[in-house]
Amino acid sequence: MINKTVPNVSEALKGVKDGMTFMFGGFGLSGIPENAIAELVRLNIKGLTCISNNAGVDDFGLGLLLQQNQVKKMISSYVGENDEFERQMLSGELEVELIPQGTLAERCRAAQAGIPAFYTPAGYGTEVQDGKETREFNGKMHIMERAFDADFGFIKAWKGDAAGNLVFKGTARNFNPNMCGAAKVTVAEVEELVPVGELDPNEIHIPGIFVQRIFKGAHFEKRIEQRTVRQR
């Protein structure tokens, strides 16, 4: 068995450089790789292309990278919670590619499966179609979308073992599974790191073959974007 455990986030992120393309799991602030993002902020690498469902909020998640102008391009499906993102996009400081959420998920999954491209009707007849090949299937027009080509994928899971097997919990099981194995190097940070054999094989969501590095994260804040409660 290959032991994929690394002692800390610094070791897990060895090899990251300016100008790279990164994938970040998560939906809103749920299931985001908090430790990996904090380390990227500390390293202050620049010119990044970030693939993520969203851009976090102003002072958390990918918003921390935006604050330091580390991001050159965002590829996302929703960015409505971040004022700094809006400012940078409208000023032209930040390149933005907005794509349908299902297309985002499938471009991750296609990369994971080694499929170079696929056809989807989502976005046909809109700006999403611009510059892309189109084709008719069963009387309906489709756009050809290409699989992502990312250098690192940063994943957050609930539990993992030394072989890289992962278990997700609740809403954190969002874009994380599709991004595992979709980049050249997948780095998983987990809340609980257990010995091999302790995870029930029937409950493993992602097998270790899709993960290159795994470490036990620390100090997860698990913030909530919008908390709504009823009045007493």
TrEMBL record:
Q: Please verify whether the record's keywords include Transferase.
A: yes
Q: Gene3D superfamilies recorded for this chain?
A: Glutaconate Coenzyme A-transferase
Which Pfam families would you find in this protein's record? CoA_trans
Q: Which GO terms describe its molecular function?
A: CoA-transferase activity
Q: Which InterPro entries match?
A: 3-oxoacid_CoA-transf_A, CoA_trans_fam_I, CoA_transf_BS, NagB/RpiA_transferase-like
Keywords from the named record: Transferase
Source taxon at top rank: Bacteria
Family label: Belongs to the 3-oxoacid CoA-transferase subunit A family.
What protein name applies here?
A: Succinyl-CoA--3-ketoacid-CoA transferase
Q: Species name for this entry?
A: Winogradskyella aurantia
